[in-house]
Amino acid sequence: MLQAALDLGGTRIKFGLISNGQCVVTSSLAIPSSERFATVLPLIEAEIYRMMRESGFTRLDGVGMAFPTIVDSDRMRLLYQYVKYTDANDLDLTTWAKARWNATLVMENDARAALVGEWQFGAGQGVDNLVMVTLGTGVGSAALVNGRLLKGSHYLAGNLGGHQTIRFDGKRCNCGNIGCLESEASSWALPEMIKRHALYAESPFAQGEKPDFEAVFRLATAGDPLAVSVRDHCLEAWAAGILNLVYAYDPDRIVIGGGVMHSAELILPFIQQKIAQAAWLPVNAVQVVAAEQPDWAGVLGMGYLGTTKKGITVFKI
Ligand SMILES: [Zn+2]
């Protein structure tokens, strides 16, 4: 049983060949952000053929693709022409996979794929109530409840943790809402947040320091007042958002990934302590842990979903 599992990110597509539950080979391709999916598909096809050839496989049973948008994983369609690969729905990918390899296609949202990857192969092993949050360019999320990947009527359930309102009088988000977790604390929102800060003119950022989280955490540790203020704002925002997800999905464990986790030693205890203060939870009810498969969770998750029934819901009960 061989699966080709793909995680289609913003600038890179990651590939894995999964044979009987083991990832036997990985690879990745850089893709210009302007590229249309019609142009990318032949590259994907060639890469899968190359990996199969070099690993000695001649037969492919399934192809799994994780997309960075909302995905109808029953009909294998993208539901929002948003972010990237806006022409993917013009192509019938189910027919493509069938015609090339007689393989079954499964598609899923990338955060759900990453959650399944961590659940089966990473920091989420051993629990069936799990929330995954990625803190990076944006804020992604997914939820597993009673061993079931949560999807809802419109495939949104658990996916929009980044667009929950945490400040109703906050900043306008790129989704149209006001005060989303993502517009309050994410890499894309950070440069504007720093530039509009009252202390900007006296800060190292006005002297050319790059406005990213690496600099914010480094300068905050050194005592720069703007960096301390922005760091603390973001920590409070992430903690508020994650506590909301705890109340929404009642997990045993929260797995946090994303680029910001280079500062995990500061972020994890802060969030853990905020959750510990919440009155409705038993003591130590929710563990807050770092992702263990930060680069390959999406690929591993798609490989797993491709081998379970239709890749739709995963029941363990
Ligand atoms: Zn939003």
Number of helical segments with 4 or more residues = 9
Spans of at least 5 consecutive residues whose pLDDT stays below 50 are 310-317
The CATH class of the largest domain is identified as: Alpha Beta
Number of spatially distinct domains: 2
Radius of gyration: 20 Å
CATH architecture of the largest domain: 2-Layer Sandwich
Strand order of the largest sheet: 3-2-1-4-7
Residue share in helix: 25-40%
- Write out the CATH superfamily name of the largest domain: ATPase, nucleotide binding domain
Q: Sum up the overall morphology in one term.
A: globular
What are the main properties of this structure?
single chain; 317 residues; alpha/beta; 34% helix; binds zinc ion
Could you walk me through the main structural features you see in this protein, from its secondary elements to its overall organization?
This protein is of the alpha/beta class and 317 residues long. It folds into 2 domains: 2-109, ATPase, nucleotide binding domain (Nucleotidyltransferase, domain 5, 2-Layer Sandwich); 123-290, Nucleotidyltransferase, domain 5, CATH 3.30.420.40. The chain is 34% helix and 20% strand. It contains 9 helices and 12 strands. The strands form 3 sheets. Strands 3-2-1-4-7 form a 5-stranded mixed β-sheet, with helices on both faces. α8 links the parallel β11 and β12. α3 packs across α9 and α7 crosses α8. The longest helix has 25 residues, at 225-249. The protein is globular and about 60 Å long. The protein starts with a strand and ends in a 10-residue tail after the last helix. The model is unreliable at 310-317 (pLDDT under 50). It binds zinc ion (ZN). Zinc ion is lined by residues 163, 173, 175, 177, 180, 182-183.
